[in-house]
Write a structure and sequence with these properties.
Blueprint: H1 3-16, H2 22-34, H3 38-43, H4 51-65, H5 70-74, E1 77-79, E2 82-84, H6 97-111, E3 132-136, H7 142-150, E4 157-162, H8 165-177, E5 183-186, E6 197-202, H9 217-220, H10 235-244, E7 248-257, H11 263-271, E8 276-282, E9 288-294
Parallel strand pairs: 3-4, 3-6, 4-5, 6-7
Antiparallel strand pairs: 1-2, 7-9, 8-9
Helix pairs in contact: 1-2, 1-4, 2-4, 6-7
């Protein structure tokens, strides 16, 4: 069977099973199987594919149809222009989380002497010569590693923590893969944290427990530990807001990703724990996605 034939068959199989973006996913799987870029499929569309590879391709299609996320099959996800290894032990980094990372970058670049960003005009503008950042619930390490790589300050210190040993192993792989400098800590939120930071950033679990069974099959295959935010989805925000002030330097900043419907609730939680200057950023779809405050 030629490449173009098996690719068309793969697209048909996925379409029959109502898989979104079936054309793209069929191409990605075939490229992954061959270890070649997608352009290879176009240039070599008349090349014969050996029977063993055909069998492997249909096996990959079956895994996708069964609900296994594409990124777990290929062990890859792009985030902030960097490549990350992902598996079933970690949440798959999503484009909306880039809003969170970019907000931290804007604030740090402002503090590092670059042009003032209007977004933070109400925040203290003290220059941070040696900024310290903590990423809570780091998972794959995407947030911490992106910050460490993208901030142009050799004196920045980035720490990342997670309760999951398996997640931290993945994060360490990604740190080496992207040649980043991040210090990892196994910790249940602040349990094993002993230092103070200028910035604490987190994309904590925030899905309501009862909602998880209603999510798509591929999302349900991601670790529930990284999804489940308790009965109302706010458990981690309460814990973080209650403890974060103890681990922030003077005028320290807290950056949180939130669910689309959690702005008012999270803002109230922060205000009740003495956080101020609270602002909210929206994601690419116009949904409330990031809350920023200082202590």
């Amino acid at each position: 069977m030629k490449l173009k034939e098996i690719l068309n068959d793969g697209i048909y199989v996925l379409k029959e099973k109502n898989i979104d973006d079936c054309n793209l996913k069929a191409r990605i799987l075939l490229s992954f199987l061959l270890g070649k870029p997608k352009e290879y499929l176009i240039i070599n569309d008349n090349k014969e594919l050996e029977v063993e590879k055909q069998v492997e391709y249909y096996s990959l299609l079956d895994r996708l149809i069964s609900g296994e996320p594409l990124q777990y099959i290929t062990n890859n996800q792009e985030f902030m222009g960097l490549d990350f290894f992902v598996n079933e032990k970690v949440l798959i980094p999503q484009p909306d989380t880039e809003i969170l990372v970019e907000a931290v970058m804007k604030y740090l670049n402002n503090n590092c002497g670059k042009e003032i960003c209007e977004l933070f005009e109400n925040y203290p503008q003290e220059k941070l010569n040696n900024p310290k950042v903590l990423d809570l619930c780091t998972g794959s390490g995407a947030i911490a590693i992106s910050i460490a790589k993208k901030i142009q300050n050799d004196n920045i210190e980035v720490f990342a923590s997670d309760i999951s040993k398996d997640a931290l192993e993945v994060a360490k792989v990604n740190c080496k893969k992207n040649d980043a400098k991040v210090k990892f800590i196994e910790s249940d939120l602040f349990e094993n944290i002993s230092e103070k930071f200028d910035i604490i950033v987190s994309n904590p679990p925030y899905i309501e427990t009862d909602v998880i069974p209603e999510l798509s099959k591929d999302v349900q295959n991601e670790p529930h530990l990284a999804l489940d935010g308790g009965e109302d989805g706010l458990d981690f925000y309460r814990k973080i807001a209650k403890e974060a002030g103890k681990y922030l330097n003077k005028n320290g900043m807290l950056f949180l990703e939130i669910g689309y419907n959690q702005k008012d609730s999270v803002q109230e939680i922060l205000e009740n724990n003495d956080f101020k200057n609270i602002i909210c950023l929206q994601d690419f779809g116009g949904n409330d996605r990031v809350i920023i405050s200082n202590f």
